[in-house]
Write a structure and sequence with these properties.
Blueprint: H1 2-24, H2 29-38, E1 50-54, H3 58-74, E2 96-103, E3 106-115, H4 130-133, E4 138-147, H5 157-172, E5 176-183, H6 188-195, E6 198-199, E7 205-208, E8 214-222, H7 226-234, H8 243-249, H9 272-281, H10 291-300, H11 304-307, E9 328-338, E10 346-354, E11 357-362, E12 372-377, E13 383-396, E14 399-406, H12 411-422, H13 426-430
Parallel strand pairs: 4-5
Antiparallel strand pairs: 1-2, 2-3, 3-4, 5-8, 6-8, 7-8, 9-10, 9-12, 10-11, 11-14, 12-13, 13-14
Helix pairs in contact: 2-6, 7-8
Length: 439
């Protein structure tokens, strides 16, 4: 009887909470957001069985992908897959970490943190990230969030715990400054009012391909300034309603952070057997990749244990350069910097571009050992920041000219090249800023 009474009490509280949210929808935005913040309840003494961690075993990952599949199918964000799993190629990358909430060894919640790689980020195909990149610091996309149905109506205990895990992982393990997310318009208010994400643009993408064509809004959060913003709005509240205390100060006994990864590209999350299981056997995601992405995957997993599991490359693919696509001669200033770690920037002048690559004169020799970051000034107001791989070197007297393959073009680059194809930038190109061939 006591147990039934407690369950009834929780149900009444849940109904009252839902009624309050419906009433809040009628208020002006500022008052509505203030009311939503007043309804926060932080579970500072969660279920002692709750464990928050990175999924590291095949069984944990499979449970996360199954839960995600069920949640996405129920929400209409994907069609049922024969595998019963929700997987994308980003889950195969060593820069993606799948986090989970577990109770008694069962996964009850999951979320993925997708770090930047040669594949870019999922949302950059629909949203412009140039304003975020201008503030420096590593980016990561928060994606693939799901909570088991039985744990959705517990006052957000699992949801907030997952968000705390994301915050701790990004700031303490992954050296991430900026979070970005593509969120359904129906869920935007939670991110904006409670967590102070801001919109990348004012527009809604009506059909976001990554989630079965559902609408989406791009959001971002600067983790460097988030603690102070949370303190401003929650600092004087009781701890059970204080998200600053919950995210920044509170210690959850079940939260277990992985060790810091100094170079995610050299420390794959998936073993060869796990990569084969999920992406060759349970699904055929690797085989379905286009040739360019297959080539990128071979570059990322350039280790003997993985090579035999990756889809074979088409004959002559290693000879692919920017000549595969129409090229445009122009002059644009930019610089190169290491993709990992510290290092001096190398000034360059871009002299030829295509959809997936460019040629540039560099002020110093460019190492061909791995991926670099290229910052390119496309116009007076447009910049592009790309992961690039040196693929060719030529010498013209004292000039060094390099060919670069782009991992995943960002929105600014795609718009720029499309405009070149349409002949829209002729005047701008004629007046492009000059740049010295040698520093």
């Amino acid at each position: 009887p006591a147990g039934r009474s407690m369950r009834s009490l929780r149900q009444v509280k849940l109904l009252l909470h839902k009624a309050a949210r419906r009433a809040a929808a009628l208020l002006p935005r500022r008052r509505r957001y203030r009311l939503l913040r007043s309804l926060i309840h932080c579970d500072l003494a969660p279920d002692p069985r709750l464990v928050l961690k990175a999924a590291t075993t095949r069984e944990e990952l499979e449970a996360c992908y199954q839960l995600l599949h069920e949640a996405y199918v129920d929400a209409g964000l994907m069609h049922p897959d024969p595998s019963g799993l929700r997987l994308t190629i980003y889950h195969a990358l060593p820069t993606t970490t799948t986090l989970c909430a577990m109770v008694d060894g069962q996964v009850v919640g999951t979320v993925s943190v997708i770090g930047e790689s040669a594949f870019g980020l999922p949302l950059q195909r629909a949203f412009d990230l140039s304003s975020v990149r201008a503030r420096r610091g590593k980016l990561a996309e928060v994606s693939a969030l799901a909570v088991a149905p039985a744990w959705r109506g517990n006052g957000g205990a699992v949801l907030f715990a997952l968000m705390k895990l994301v915050f701790a992982y990004c700031t303490q393990c992954a050296d991430t400054r900026h979070l970005v997310a593509a969120v359904h318009p129906g869920h935007v208010e939670m991110y904006e009012s409670l967590l102070f994400f801001r919109r990348l643009t004012g527009r809604v993408v009506e059909r976001y391909d990554y989630v079965n064509g559902a609408p989406a809004i791009g959001l971002t959060l600067d983790l460097k300034h988030a603690p102070e913003i949370l303190r401003k709005y929650y600092g004087d509240r009781a701890r059970r309603r204080n998200l600053h205390h919950y995210f920044v100060e509170a210690e959850l006994p079940g939260l277990r952070l992985p060790g810091r990864r100094s170079s995610a590209a050299n420390e794959p999350v998936l073993t060869p057997a796990m990569l084969d299981h999920f992406f060759n056997q349970r699904t055929q995601l690797l085989a379905a990749l286009d040739e360019r992405r297959k080539a990128l995957l071979h570059l990322i997993y350039d280790l003997p244990g993985y090579k035999r599991l990756l889809p074979p490359l088409a004959a002559g693919l290693d000879d692919l350069t920017m000549r595969r696509h129409r090229r445009f001669a122009l002059r644009r200033p930019g610089c190169l910097s290491p993709a990992e770690g510290e290092g001096a920037a190398n000034a360059m002048e871009v002299i030829e571009v295509s959809r997936y690559g460019f040629r540039a004169r560099a002020s110093r020799a460019v190492s061909a050992d791995g991926w670099l970051i290229a910052d390119i000034q496309l116009g007076q107001r447009d910049r592009s920041r790309l992961h690039v791989l040196p693929v060719q070197e030529s010498r013209f007297g004292e000039d060094r000219v390099y060919g670069f393959r782009i991992g995943e073009p960002d929105l600014a680059w795609r718009k720029f090249v499309n405009a070149l194809y349409d002949g829209q930038l002729a005047d701008d190109l004629d007046h492009a800023p000059s740049f010295p061939s040698r520093a």
